[in-house]
Write a structure and sequence with these properties.
The complex is a heterodimer of chains A (about 200) and B (about 45). Chain A is about 40% helix and about 20% strand. Chain A has about 200 residues and is α/β, with parallel strands linked by helices. In chain A, strands 3-2-1-4-5 form a five-stranded parallel beta sheet. Chain A has helices at about 10-25, 40-45, 50-55, 60, 90-100, 115-125, 165-175, 195, 200-204; strands at about 80-85, 105-110, 130-135, 150-155, 175-185. In chain A, about 50% of the residues are buried. Chain A contains nine helices and five strands. Chain B is an alpha+beta fold and about 45 residues long. Chain B has a two-stranded antiparallel sheet. The longest helix of chain B has 7 residues, at about 30-35. Chain B starts with a helix and ends with a strand. Classes of the chains: A alpha/beta (about 200), B alpha+beta (about 45). The interface of A and B includes residues 46, 164, 182 and 187 of A. Strand 5 of chain A pairs antiparallel with strand 2 (about 35-45) of chain B, so a sheet runs across the interface.
Chain lengths: ~200, ~45
């Protein structure tokens, strides 16, 4: 059965547009985009710790394109299993790996290969052996049922037309009592048709 | 977002932080016009 999003964009096409956009970010993070990237933005506008970001490879943090700061919600505890949905180049999943320590696990999931490569290489460069980077998307997480203590994500759910399905996946993978710490965008007004049909607003 | 998590059975669903993440981008005017901001959302699985 074909899945459609509310205004009639084909979900497969939209997913392809998102992959293309973020492959571009991975290839050239300093290129022209309609959203901010990089560690300077993360620290100055989102409150990330500049020192923590500086300890990560620039290949990772340069492609950071989050919209909020999931780590500001609560400190992820040592020993936890964390899943980062749409981990991108890895900034949030590597920060999570540092917080959970060697007794915990940080699993990043992303549908864009170029981003997964940056994240995996970043983990290796940091000597983090508790990081796994897996291929997948928010509506089909490659994660076992009730296996995660914390699910994080940053600027991803707004890109997913099937939001109910994505949230059901989060519920599936979290243990009872598990925490959601998600950064995303919200809209304060009802958008007109012209804005709804602006593909840039669906892909970034 | 809040509604989707609440409907899925999560508890204590709340926005904890707000960020003007589009300030200085080419979409700043559009974001201001429609009240588009970055937020942190916290929730607990029952």
């Amino acid at each position: 059965m074909a899945v459609s999003c509310p205004i009639g964009f084909d979900v497969k096409s939209l997913r392809a547009e998102v992959q293309t956009m973020y492959a571009r970010v991975a290839a050239a993070p300093n290129g022209e985009f309609h959203f901010h990237r990089g560690p300077g933005y993360a620290a100055s506008m989102l409150g990330y710790d500049a020192g923590e970001l500086a300890a990560l490879p620039l290949d990772v943090t340069a492609a950071f394109a989050g919209v909020a700061n999931p780590h500001a919600i609560a400190r992820i505890p040592a020993g936890a299993t964390v899943v980062d949905i749409g981990c991108g180049a890895g900034t949030d999943v590597l920060l999570a790996a540092l917080r959970v320590g060697p007794t915990g696990r940080a699993i990043g999931v992303d549908m864009t290969e170029a981003m997964r490569q940056r994240a995996a290489q970043g983990a290796a460069a940091c000597g983090l052996t508790n990081v796994e980077v897996r291929s997948g998307d928010a509506t089909r997480l490659p994660i076992d049922d009730r296996s995660a203590d914390v699910v994080i994500s940053n600027g991803v759910l707004n890109l997913v037309p099937e939001k109910e399905r994505a949230v059901a996946e989060i519920a599936r993978v979290l243990k009872p009592g598990g925490q959601v710490q998600i950064g995303d965008i919200v809209i304060g007004e009802v958008l007109p048709e012209s804005a709804l049909r602006d593909i840039d607003l669906w892909t970034g | 977002m809040i509604d989707v998590f609440s409907a899925a059975g999560f508890r204590d669903v709340e926005i904890t932080h707000r960020y003007d993440c589009f300030v200085g981008t080419t979409k700043e005017r559009t974001a201001k016009k429609y009240g588009v901001i970055g937020v942190n959302v916290s929730a607990t699985r029952m």
